[in-house]
## 1
Amino acid sequence: MRPILAAESKPSWQAEWDKTVRAAEQEGQVTVSIGGYGAIIDSGVFQKLYPKIKITHITGAGTDLTQRISAERRAGKYLVDVYNGGGNSLFQVLYLGKMLDPIKSTLILPDVTDATKWWEGKQKYADKEGQYIFVYEGNVSAGAGASYNSQLLDPREYKSYWDFLNPKLKGKILSTDIRKVRGAGIPWQFLYYNSDLGPKYLRRLFGEMDVTLTADLRQAIDWLGTGKFLVGMPIQGGTVYKAKNQGLPVDEFSPYHFKEGVNFSSAFGSIALMNRAPHPNAAKVFINWLLSRDGQALFQKTISVPGDARNSRRVDVSKDHIPPDEQRRDKMSYFDTDDPDTKDLNPAMKLLDEILAGKK
């Protein structure tokens, strides 16, 4: 009988992983375009684990990063291997622009491919094919992201978003402008695609309530704190938390407050593999590392700050840092903003234009 060689006794995934790492070390580098979460790479952990793979990263707002990639590719330059960032710009620009390769086939490590390690026993993809946009973050957030002046408004009087149509709030509601504010997309997805709200609700809110739109978040918080406005919807949660800690009378409605449901969002926690990547094997190594248990534990630890905790969709990493009212609940029906059918924000922007034009 022929003796079994050591290499032949390795699990198939281990042999594939070893081969991929060797090829990645030959490539010598990986370039990651990363919106919001550059601190993961700045931690230096990946570089220490894989010293022969130099990691270069480009940070910035997702809209800027995706437009930069598009411009480079129009010029025939294929420089980026991996994109990590917010789901909307990733979907609208890179996915719809057909600039991605399937990421699913790059997953090698068993603790990444094992679906039981992920929320609800499945891996989450934000594209209809279930191949291109891997979503690794799942935060519970408060629907339309409503905030309020805590001295002048009693949150107990408002259990539904429809309650904001109360005549006493006319002229007292402030909204960030989806057409101008980066990062405003998720609450607008909730408002537009939620079957209990949708275009009918938005037509009444913006058509009847004299809502003031602004692109200046700092000004919005000041106006809310001084009582010029009583409700802000949406205003980014981290901004409100900071203002509250500074002593301003502002607060957020808790995620489970309104009867229309709760958001399940990924913030900047989506990752994709660029097609024609210059370092495809190094890209695989980085993707598998980030989606591993260790990578996701680092993500949560590095990115979470007071008032803005980050929650991996992995279920085998600690959730002790997540506040009780932001913990995921089993068998709860969430409005998942990473479902592909709710990603297109163009109809919401078109509707807002129509409503405002009708008021002139």
## 2
Amino acid sequence: MKFLVDRPLGGLAKWLRFCGFDAALVRLAPDKPGIWPPPQPHTHLLTSQAACGRLGRPDLLILAAREPEGQLAEVFRCLDLSPRHLHPLSRCSHCNDPLTPLDRDLVQGRVPEHVFHYHRRFYECPRCHRIYWPGSHIQGIAATLRERLEELAGGG
């Protein structure tokens, strides 16, 4: 599944990437539908601009929530997403590229010393070369995702 996310929803795009979804930022101008990407299978356009609704695109979701976590919950609810759809922390949260495993020996000097000694698995973005590892930030992201999924399961 792929998402084309309106630029003002950059925080949502980052959360979708945390979930493992391909989430590219685009400019969706309601007054310029001719420059919108054509509909594609398994691709959804996400915006908070109510004026875009008049275009009648079946691939368009207009989100009401103001904050990224609420928008993420809306997307999950509208598309009936569940944990089986997620591939957490498999994409670069900045570039959107899939992360590739990186040999531990290649990260020495590129990550803080304590990180190198404490962690065994590392991943790299092939575009921006950021290095990722399963640190404490993953627990926070996973907890937020778990909360959102539990809210949806409970009808919240």
## 3
Amino acid sequence: MRTNKVRKGEHKVTDMISEKDCTKQVRQVGNQVGLLYYHFAKTLVNELGEAEGKRLILEAIRSYGNERGATIREKVENAGLELTIENFAKFSDLPSSGWEYTDEGTTYCCYAEAWMDRGVENLGRLYCEVDFALIKAYNPKIQATRVGSILDGDPCCKMVFE
């Protein structure tokens, strides 16, 4: 049975919410996604051993990135635009709230927070391989290089594209 009850202090979908509340809610969901990934990854490594577990994690992450990249590619092509990194960003499937960005890169990541809180940056780095699969599926001519990662203690996650 489905109800439309809203817990005290929460908003119904039809309510206007502040940017601050929106960011908070997106971060809560992002943190939960990071936590879910952590438990799947940890279970695979614990059950199958480090090498096989990590291999399967990377296989799944690359498949996920390939699907997302192909979807973004299709949207850009349907709009009659070139497959540039700028158009990739315009059609990104990430929410505009929740993460924090500067010209240097991503300075806050909901997923990374969940992994760093648990000391599993090594498993988080496997998830971050999604970025390379996304770009390759979107346009294999674009070369991506990661030059910074919050998970490595850098002030931001940053990639350069050629």
